[in-house]
């Protein structure tokens, strides 16, 4: 049985580091964060919501209930709590 040669360099011999150019750290970070919205759920929450669709439907239902109970519309901005304004 042949054993694979182990080297510290993980690049294939046909690739040369100088041919790859200079890397830029965080080059795609902003576009990645704008297109991805990952949320980590607690294990007990994940157990109650087994799929992405179920989580989205539950959150959309909660949004509808909150808007109906507060009178907010899709374009209106929430106002600050009056109690917090008097405490200043």
Topology:
Blueprint: H1 29-35, H2 43-48, H3 52-70, H4 82-86
**What structural class is derived from the secondary structure elements?**
mainly alpha
The unreliable regions are none
Query: Strand-and-helix sequence, N→C?
Result: HHHH
What share of residues is helical? 40-55%
The number of E-state strands comes to 0
Percentage of residues in strands: under 5%
Report the oligomer: single chain
Average pLDDT number: 78
Our Rg estimate from Cα atoms comes to: 26 Å
Principal-axis shape:
elongated
Taking the alpha carbons of the first and last residues, their distance comes to 78 Å
Number of helices: 4
Describe the largest sheet. none
Q: Care to describe what's here?
A:
The structure is a single chain. With 88 residues, the chain is mainly alpha-helical. The protein has a domain at 41-73. Helices cover 42% and strands 0% of the residues. The chain contains four helices and no strands. It has helices at 29-35, 43-48, 52-70, 82-86.
List keywords for this structure.
88 residues, mainly alpha
Quick description:
The chain is an all-alpha fold. Helices cover 42% and strands 0% of the residues.
